[in-house]
Amino acid sequence: MRYDTEVLFIKNGEGSHYDPDLGEWIEAEPIVTETVANVTDLGTDRSVALFGNIKQGAVVIRTQPLFIIPKWDNIEIEGKSYQLTTARQPLDRNSLIVEEVVKGG
C-alpha cells in the first residue's frame, strides 16, 4: 500500500470574532495538520452499499499506522474539499470514507 497522497486536515480557527472598532468579522488562522496517506476511489460495490447508488467524488483515505487524526472541520486533497461519510480504525490505522464538497453548487 502506497502512502503517497498529501492530505490536509483543517480545523477552523477558534479565535474568530467581530471587531466593533473595525466594524468587521476577524477570522482566526486555521490549524492545518498535513500527512501523507493512501487515497483511492471508493469501489462501486461499496458505494452502492453506503449510498444506494454510485457516488462520484467519494474516496477512501487510509492513514499510516499510529497516525492520530486531529480534530478537523474539513479535509483537503489536491485542492478539493471533502466531508466525512464514515470512519473505521482497524489495527491502529484509520480508514475514512469521505465525499467531495461541491462549493457554490
Summary?
8% of the residues lie in helices and 46% in strands. The protein has one helix at residues 44-51; strands at 5-11, 17-19, 24-26, 31-41, 58-62, 74-77, 80-88, 95-100.
The radius of gyration over CA amounts to 16 Å
Overall SS class: mainly beta
Helix content: under 10%
How would you characterize the largest beta sheet?
6 strands, antiparallel, barrel
Mean pLDDT: 85
What's the shape? globular
Determine the number of helices (DSSP H or I, runs of at least 4 residues).
1
How many beta-strand segments? 8
Strand order of the largest sheet: 1-4-5-8-7-6
Walkthrough of the structure:
This protein is mainly β. A six-stranded antiparallel beta barrel has the order 1-4-5-8-7-6. A two-stranded antiparallel ribbon has the order 2-3. Strand 6 (74-77) and strand 7 (80-88) form a beta hairpin. The protein has one helix at 44-51, and strands spanning 5-11, 17-19, 24-26, 31-41, 58-62, 74-77, 80-88, 95-100.
